[in-house]
Amino acid sequence: MTALPLHECLSELRAVVIGASTGAVAALSHLLPPLAADFPLAILVTVHVPADKPNCIPALLQAKCRIAIKEAEDKEPVVPGTVYFAPPDYHLLVEQDRSLSLSSEEPANFSRPSVDVLFESAADAYGKDLLAIILSGANQDGARGARAVGEAGGVVVVQNPDSAEARMMPESALTACPEARIMNLSTLAELLCAYGGTAQC
Amino acid sequence: MTSDAAMKTEDIELQLFLEAVYQQFHYDFRGYSKASIKRRLLLARNRIGCATFSALQERLLHDSSVLPQLLDYLTVQVSDMFRDPGYFRALREQIVPHLKTYPSLKVWVAGCSSGEELYSLAILFREEGLESKTMFYATDINVGALAKAEAGVYDLQRIALFTRNHRLAGGKGSLSDYYTAAYGAARFDKTLRRRTVFSDHSLVSDSVFAEVHLVSCRNVLIYFDRPMQDRAIGLFKEALVRKGFLGIGARESLRFNAHAKAFTDLLPGERIYQKRGDE
After folding, report:
1. What is the greatest pairwise CA distance in chain A?
2. Burial class (CB in 10 A: 0-12, 13-18, 19+), B83
3. DSSP code for A80
4. pLDDT above 70: percentage of residues in chain B
5. Backbone phi, then psi, for B106, in 5-degree steps?
6. pLDDT tens digits for A109-160?
7. Which of B33, B78, B249 is closest, CB to CB, to A106?
8. Number of Cβ within a 10 Å radius of residue B273
9. What is the pLDDT of residue B161?
10. d(CA A110, CA A48)
11. A77, burial (CB in 10 Å: exposed 0-12, middle 13-18, buried 19+)
C-alpha cells in the first residue's frame, strides 16, 4: 500500500472511531472541544471504564464541547455531529446499516467495553471510509482492531507513545498495524478541525 | 479481489450459514444483530478450524458434533447473579408490594441461559415470602445452557461478586444460606428450583404458553434486530396479565419498539415497565 498524504486518505470518511484507556480523559479533552457542533462525522468512542459505576466521562466532556456527546443506546441510528460512548459493562458495535448495537458477550482483552470489538465491527461496516484513532492506554486492547481497520482500507492514527500518558496501547497498535500514522494530539486535533471545516484550533 | 469485495463475500456466506442452521436445525438466528453474531461466529470458526463460513457450513451440515459447540457461541451466556443490583432492589421494594396482592403468581424468565437471573429471582421471592405461591418458567433456546441452569452449580470464584450483588440488591441474610461449596463450586439449594419449569422455548419462533405476572428478560433483546425485538415484546405483551410487569436489561429500551404504547415506563432508571390496563 502506498502512503497517500493524509488529507487525501481522509477525503471520503464516514465515521471516526477512538479507543483509549489510561489517560483517555486528558487525550479526549484535547481532541473533542475544538470540534464544531456540526462536525460532519459521527465519532464512536470506547474507553475502558469500571463495570459497576456510571460513566462520568461523557458529561465531563460535554461541559467543554460544542459537539453533542452521549452514551450509545442499543439500535440507535448513527448521526453525524455526535460522539457516542460505549456504556460501562457493554461492548459497542456498529451494524452494516450504520446503527449501533450493544452486547454483553465475554470481555475481550479483559475489557468490556473493548476497543477491538468496536474497531472490528466498524471496519466491517465502514470499510475504507473510516478513521481509527488509538490514544493513551496501558494494555493491548485496540491493536487487533487497528489492524482490522487498516486491512479494510481505513486510516489508522496512533497517538505518539512518547506523548501519551500510558504508552502500551499506542505501541501495541503500531506493532499490529505498522502502516498506522503517529501523531501528537495537537496535530491530530488540527487535522480533525480542518476536516470539519473549522480552523480555530 | 479488493478488500471490499472480500467482505461482501463473507457477508453472503454468513447469511447462507445462518440459513443452513435454520433449515437443518430450526434454530433461527437470521434476525439477530449481525455485528455481534458475526464476531462470535468468527471466534467459533477459528476454534473449529475452518477458513471460511462456507467451510464451517459444510462441517455443520455433515458432522453432528458441530452444532452443540456452535450454539455456545451463537447464544451469549454471560450473566451474574443479581447483575445490576439496582434492578433487583427495585423489584423488591417497588414491584413485590404489587405482586403480594395476587393469590398466585407466575414469573417468566425469558432467555434464562445458565440460570443466574432465575436463582436471583427465586432467592428474592423466598426472602419476600412469595415463593410458595409462585411458579417460575425459565426458558432458553440453548438446551445445554438450560441443563446448567437446572443444575445450579457455579464456579466458586464468582461467588464473591454474587454475594456483593445480593447485598446491594437488598438481600436479607447471607447468600451462603442458599448454596453449599465443595470442590471449587457452589451448588445452589435445589429447593430454590422446586417451583421452576425449565423449557426449551424460542422468542423468535415459539408462541405464548402461559399467562404471567412478571417477565424478566435481561440482555437478550440487544442481540435481536428491530423486527425480532418487536416480536419478542409482542409475546411478552400477550403473556402478561393486565398491569403485569416487564423488566429488561439496563441498556435496553422499548423506545424503538412497535409495542411501546402497550406499556408504561414505570421505573425508567431500572427499565421496569408495566403493561397498560386497557390492553
Report:
1. 45
2. buried
3. T
4. 97
5. -125, 135
6. 889 999 999 999 999 999 999 999 999 999 999 999 999 999 999 999 999 9
7. B78
8. 26
9. 95
10. 10
11. exposed
Rounded distance, CA B279 to CA B271, Å?
Answer: 20
Identity at B198, one-letter amino acid code: F
Separation of CA B157 from chain center: 22
- Order of strands across the sheet that contains A15-20: A68-71, A82-85, A42-47, A15-20, A130-134, A155-159, A181-183
Joined grid coordinates for residue B196: 421452576
Exposure b/e, B44-78, CB count within 10 A at least 16 = b: bbeebebeebbebbebbbeeeebbebbbebbbbbe
Q: How many residues does chain B have?
A: 279
* H-helix or E-strand spanning residue B230: helix B226-239
* A-chain residues near B225 (CB < 8 A): 75
CA A72 to chain centre: 13
pLDDT tens for B250-274 read: 999 998 899 999 999 999 999 999 9
> What is the three-class DSSP state of A158?
strand
Which ipTM was obtained for this model?
0.88
Task: Return the amino acid letter for B94.
Answer: Q
Dihedral sign for Cα atoms in the order A106, A110, A116, A118: positive
Can you tell me the distance from the alpha carbon of B137 to that of B240, in angstroms, rounded to the nearest whole number? 13
Predicted TM-score (pTM) of this structure: 0.90
Amino acid in the structure at residue A146: A
B256 at interface of A, judged by CB pairs closer than 8 A: yes
Task: Give the C-alpha separation, A34 to A48, whole Å.
Answer: 23
- Reported for B14-17, long-range contacts at CB under 8 A and 24+ positions apart, including other chains, are B14/B38, B14/B41, B14/B53, B16/B53, B16/B54, B16/B57, B17/B41, B17/B53, B17/B54, B17/B56, B17/B57, B17/B60
Residues 6+ apart with CB under 8 A from A194: A7
What is the per-residue pLDDT for B218? Answer: 96
Contacts of B40 in chain A (CB under 8 A): 105
In whole angstroms, give the CA distance from residue A111 to residue A35: 28
Q: How far apart are CA B266 and CA B273, in angstroms?
A: 5
β strands within B33-191, DSSP E = 105-110, 134-140, 153-155, 179-182, 185-188
Catalytic annotation, pick one of A11, A21, A29, A162: A21
3 state DSSP class of B122? helix
Task: Tell me which amino acid residue A107 is.
Answer: P
Q: Alpha-carbon distance B274 to B265, whole Å?
A: 7
Helix (H) or strand (E) holding B56: helix B53-62
Contacts of A51 in chain B (CB under 8 A): none
To the query of whether residue A141 is one of the catalytic residues in this protein, the response is: yes
Per-residue pLDDT, B71: 87
